[in-house]
Design brief:
globular, 407 residues, alpha/beta, four-stranded mixed β-sheet, 12 helices, single chain, 22 strands
Length: 407
């Protein structure tokens, strides 16, 4: 399904309600499976969260999580501690190319019984759930934070908890802190000092409690981009957000000040307003928020300004190699991009080609990051339905702003 986005202008003032954070939802769904006393509200309606919910409720001995990388990592740890349960965890063709070895080895160090079904180091994997008594494990600190969070989420169910030592410079600290904050909310004690994280075992059931998932900041990023590209005075209100967010992508508030976008926090919402134009070259280190790199790169391209984005090494192993994908698609549009293993440099540009077809590579963020360009030119988004992975109502929400979209 390809969508054509005609060059559009949007309303000066509008509002959008965004579903719960996929990151928070998937962590809380796993914790609810471990502690059924919990109730959840505003859970993400993304494909990933639906797949996570379905997998946790499944009694099958084969669980297919398709493209859901978070679910693959979290469920690997979850099934490892389900005593007496035997599960083969599998996914899409791309999922079978995404490494899982670091997490599997960490779980094996704790005593887990996990083996590879096809290729060493990659899904599918066979897991025989058992009680894990060992509690000390080391992990390289610059790996995906989802490996770390997967271990922390099950830690309170281990006989002796966990003492996790991270070696080297830590990547995506906000996501680790998000996990620890959610554990704290349900009464699981933990500490994070220097490079050592300790999570205590929890022997008592938590008291019945309802937890509300904050809306997704990654999804908000596309509206920051839209406001940045729009004329001065444009406002978009987004719900439901809080100022003391656990999500790393809330860094958008500070980052988009550089584009003249001011964010005002109200009780349960934020108002984004374009107050000034700022055409200066941009440099950002996104090591703690790599998922917004695509959005920022496209914002800069739309504005004709250069940007230097660093700290992007984890983007190589996402739904696609996002750095190469960005370079390929921006250059189709007449931009010029240089990439390394962990950085992207966008040269300033004078023009944007019209009616270019943008490949999305089975990657929801590629589709959504390029959509704001319709404020500058007409374009085609290939496989537009891929947005359902994290934000199923995205295209309808853009239409309410005034975007002209057709199949």
């Amino acid at each position: 399904m390809h969508f054509t986005l005609q060059k559009s202008t949007i309303a000066k003032q509008s509002s959008i309600k965004i579903t719960g954070s996929k990151s928070e939802s998937n962590r809380l769904l796993l914790l609810k499976a471990l502690y059924p006393e919990l109730s959840l509200e505003n859970v993400s309606n993304s494909d990933d969260s639906k797949l996570m919910t379905k997998a946790l409720a499944s009694s099958s001995n084969i669980v297919d999580i398709h493209h859901a990388g978070t679910a693959m990592r979290f469920l690997t740890a979850f099934f490892a501690v389900q005593e007496g349960r035997e599960v083969t965890l599998t996914g899409s063709k791309r999922m079978k190319e995404r490494p899982i070895k670091i997490l599997v080895e960490a779980l094996q160090d704790l005593g887990a019984n996990i083996s590879y079904v096809e290729n060493e180091g990659f899904p599918p994997i066979k897991i025989k759930g058992k009680k894990l008594a060992k509690n000390k494990v080391n992990l390289k600190a610059n790996v995906s934070s989802q490996y770390i969070s997967a271990l922390l989420l099950i830690a309170s169910k281990l006989e002796n908890g966990i003492e996790l030592t991270l070696e080297g410079e830590i990547t995506s600290v906000p996501y680790i802190k998000m996990t620890l904050s959610l554990l704290d909310e349900i009464g699981v004690a933990s500490s994070f000092v220097n490079n050592t994280i300790i999570v205590k075992p929890k022997n008592q059931k938590p008291k019945p409690k309802t937890l509300t998932v904050e809306s997704d900041w990654s999804s908000a990023s596309y509206y920051f981009s839209i406001v940045a590209i729009s004329e001065i005075g444009t406002e978009i209100t987004l719900t439901s957000y809080k100022e003391n967010s656990l999500q790393g992508d809330s860094a958008l508030v500070e980052i988009y000040k550089e584009f003249g976008v001011e964010t005002t926090f109200l009780k349960h919402s934020i108002v984004l307003k374009k107050t000034t134009g700022n055409q200066n070259p941009k440099t950002f280190n996104l090591v703690n928020a790599p998922d917004i790199a695509q959005t920022i790169a496209v914002t800069c391209f739309a504005l004709g300004i250069s940007c230097n984005l660093k700290g992007l090494h984890t983007l190589k192993i996402k739904e696609t190699d996002r750095l190469v994908a960005l370079k390929t698609e921006i250059e189709k549009l007449d931009g010029q991009v240089d990439v390394t293993n962990d950085s992207l440099y966008l040269h300033p540009s004078q023009s944007i080609k019209d009616m270019v077809s943008i490949g999305t590579y089975h990657d929801h963020r590629m589709a959504m990051a390029f959509a704001p360009l319709a404020l500058k030119t007409s374009l085609i988004i290939e496989d537009a339905g891929v947005v359902s992975k994290s934000y199923p109502t995205f295209w309808n929400d853009l239409k309410t702003l005034g975007f002209r979209i057709s199949e």
